[in-house]
Amino acid sequence: xxxxxxxxPHVRIARPSRDLTAAERFWVGGLGLDVLWRAAAxxxxxxxxxxxxxxxAEWHLELVGGxxxxxxxAPTTEDLLVLYxxxxxxxxxxxxxxxxxxxxxxxxxxxxxWGVTVADPDGYRLVLSTRExxxx
Length: 136
What we know:
Blueprint: E1 11-16, H1 20-30, E2 34-39, E3 48-53, E4 59-65, E5 80-84, H2 91-99, E6 103-105, H3 109-113, E7 115-119, E8 125-129
């Protein structure tokens, strides 16, 4: 049976992280997301977990780390998390992301034209797009 078209499913984006403290500094301290959940590994095969997002939003970012991390982060230039801001990107926000451990990078001509891209401490890219989201 296909997904229902009447309700939007919640989305969880999961990524490994080498350093959850650095990741939290970037996503929470820099971008302004909230910590929605945090857990420490307490047994074999488990991992530390940090879930960040906006309260009430239908998406969140799950960051997995710790001593038992099964895979190292391996981001590519196409691993983008795009936030559509529907307006200009605040220069102070970009500076705050950089102070929080991010690195401003190019994501190619399209995204450079329509926003600002900042790599998080693990190298995954966040695009702050000036565009408005459209389902068209």
